[in-house]
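# step 3/5: fold
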Amino acid sequence: MKFFPIAVLYFGLVVAFSTSAAAPETEADPLLAQAQLVEVASNMITALQDPAVRQNVDQIEQLVRRVLVPHIDFRASSNLVLGPHWKAASEAQRAAFINEFQAFLVRFYTGALASYVDSDEIPVDLMAFRDEPRSKGPRQVFVRSHVGQSDGDKVAVEYRMLWRGMWKVIDVSVDGISMVQSYRSNFSTTVKRQGLDALIAQLQERNQSFATN
């Protein structure tokens, strides 16, 4: 089964294709979060119909940076990923981790997306949002989608979103597997054995390796 890197779409919620200014507090509405996801998914898929975009890694990276990155809450995601190590970190360490984690994710999702769309046309009905959003308090919501696969199966993808003047995604779960929990498990081992600075250095080294390849 060829898996579409749906986490790329998770990170892209509503940049050029939706509200960019801070919305009033009264708009912390779960249905608005879902509507933003529907719109960005539609526009992202439309952009990828162009062979000049989907067959050029640089174009895909530009698309990721332009459409996805501005609406990721990297600070909140980094906090969740590091768990108790975030509280113990200095502000300088936090800033360094956020920077390298962001670069790592951009490279990872660019590569994953490029490998999927290199020769395949992207179905316009790839994603469906049929379920009602689930609220967790007034400022968190879970929005579920179903993503079609090349073999006809559908994968459940759930987005965890946080309201800070506008909705931003802080985690995504694919078939029940959370991105935050997966990275947290991997990173925690390194931090416990070698320290947070060692983890940051490893991410930096990996990012530099990506950049030269």
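# step 4/5: annotate
Residues 7-212 form a domain with the Nuclear Transport Factor 2; Chain: A, fold (CATH 3.10.450.710).
# step 5/5: archive (pending)
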